[in-house]
Amino acid sequence: MLVWLAEYLTQYFNAFNVFSYLTFRAILGILTSLFLSLYLGPKLIARLQRMQIGQVVRGDGPESHFSKKGTPTMGGLLILGAVLISTLLWANLENKYVWVVLFVLVSFGWIGFVDDYRKVVRKDPKGLIARWKYFWQSLFAIAVAAFLYFTAERPAETALLVPFVKDVMPQLGLLFLALSYFVIVGTSNAVNLTDGLDGLAIVPTIMVAAAFAIIAYLSGNVNFSSYLHIPYLPHASELVVVCASLVGAGLGFLWFNTYPAQVFMGDVGSLALGAVLGVIAILVRQEIVLFIMGGIFVMETVSVILQVGSYKLRGQRIFRMAPIHHHYELKGWPEPRVIVRFWILSIIFVLVGLATLKLR
Fold first, then answer.
1. Distance between alpha carbon 112 and the CA centroid of its chain, in Å?
2. Rounded Cα–Cα distance for residues 198 and 196 (Å)
3. In this predicted model, what pLDDT tens digit does every residue of 119-162 receive, in sequence order?
4. Mean pLDDT lowest for which of 32-36, 84-88, 227-231?
5. pLDDT digit string (tens) for 207-243?
6. Which helix (H) or strand (E) holds 132?
């Protein structure tokens, strides 16, 4: 929005030309969403407390979580609002990729909001019924996948980029729709499963978003993309501002979500953030790299799948409790230790994912 104003004012004052620089707008995006989060956070927390919108704690969960009952939830609204405002201010709104990400942010945030509202306001422990949650997730994911497929302007936009291998980019055809669906819906639910401890989900989200900002910058530059043998995607460069806004909003939320948390993001945050990471991976053609960089999300999801599968097939559990972060809590690890060690693992996963850009 302000980009247009700056372009107009440049004809009168050359100093406004600085807003045409992508890196400068990315910095402004981080700072804007960060300070919005820090400013609005206490107000949102106070509002949620007055409305008695508090966390519902599982009765079969670790005993250390019982004290968290009543902690304000739905704090993901803070992240979504900060990202939305910052992106609208500093991104080039003529870029279709920007609008795709914002659509996913708002639509999946709406699904999470309905789920949270039913749980904490209507006191319905089931929240949004699972089949309806997956229905709406599927509907929005398929709509996005179809839009990207039918509006693709070059073959690279629907090809599969294989890490560690140079110049291998098979065309997916209609399989692009299926892959995009599973990436968006799968990542959305994976982040949701990870959001079980204070700050556990938001920090890996910040790290992956920061890495995607780098990848988007490289993919949107014809020289860097040629050097690294990754597809040149001119629309992708503007995603740097979106990713930067997500990093800033995440850091601002972490200020209040760090142990012991003053607020939880709830499904309104986790479902939306996961879906946004998934669609950004699709836009920059790095779905497999997302699988690597989001290793924490993969671990959490796989642990649940294995636990449920083992119990149904053998009548035995593999872990003391799933997702896997609860397993380590029940083994006696203090919550901060679990959180920080998972953060360390996330750093390693992200670095390995970034290394795939060069190791080809």
1. 13
2. 7
3. 888 777 778 898 999 999 999 999 999 999 999 999 999 999 99
4. 227-231
5. 999 999 999 999 999 999 989 888 899 999 999 999 9
6. helix 130-150
DSSP characters for 73-127?
--THHHHHHHHHHHHHHHS-TT-HHHHHHHHHHHHHHHHHHHHHHHHHTS--TT-
Distances (CA, A) of 264 to 79, 80, 133, 166, 206: 11, 13, 20, 42, 16
Q: Cβ(53)–Cβ(73) under 8 Å?
A: yes
Q: Which residue is it, tokens 């949270």?
A: 116
Q: What is the spatial distance between Cα 335 and Cα 65, in angstroms, rounded to a whole number?
A: 9
Pairs from 340-344 (Cβ < 8 Å, separation ≥ 24): 342/200, 342/204, 342/296, 343/199, 343/203, 343/204
Domain ranges of the chain: 25-355
First to last CA, the chain: 38
Amino acid at 106: V
Per the CB < 8 A criterion, the answer to whether 163 and 306 are in contact is: no
Query: Which of 239, 265, 236, 267 is closest to 250 using CA atoms?
Result: 265
